[in-house]
Amino acid sequence: MKKRVNLSKREKLILGITAGIVLIVGGYLGIYEKLAERWRRLNEDIAALTLRLEASKESYRQELRIKKEYEEVVASLRIGGSESDKQLRILQELSTLMEEAEVTAKTVKPLNVIEERNFHIFNFSYDDVETDMTDLARFLDLLEQRSKVSEVQECRIRSNESRYYRSGKFDTNFKISRLVYRR
Known about the structure:
alpha+beta; 4 helices; 58% helix
């Protein structure tokens, strides 16, 4: 049979406080700490995923920029018409860049056309280009920015004549090649 223990009021109070403390500590250790740890891990996971998302967004933006640049390059590689039409169109492109940079060539000569497997490489010689360094640098910068498939093969700068030395102008010769898709 059950024996009933009679406790005094004071013993009941102590027993109640002790049971309350045990429940609070047990709840803290058993439930709250586990929830807090889980919460912390979830926050870390969210932070890591947020970083991955931002990296993915940047990668996507970069992919779009590269794709756009690729499409521009491919479009600039495709010039229709005969070889003379292609040479004329390339000369017009280069002349536009030279005008924008305020560079003038007295003599422009188309050179040989090199045939590669899928491409033609058109070469041009620009002789007696009278310019100063600022305009020449602007032209080369425009050539780099706008014509991804053109390249300066050779550049010679002379300033030994007194007429150029006094005016700050230089006599420059350069050769430029331009890639064109064959088909």
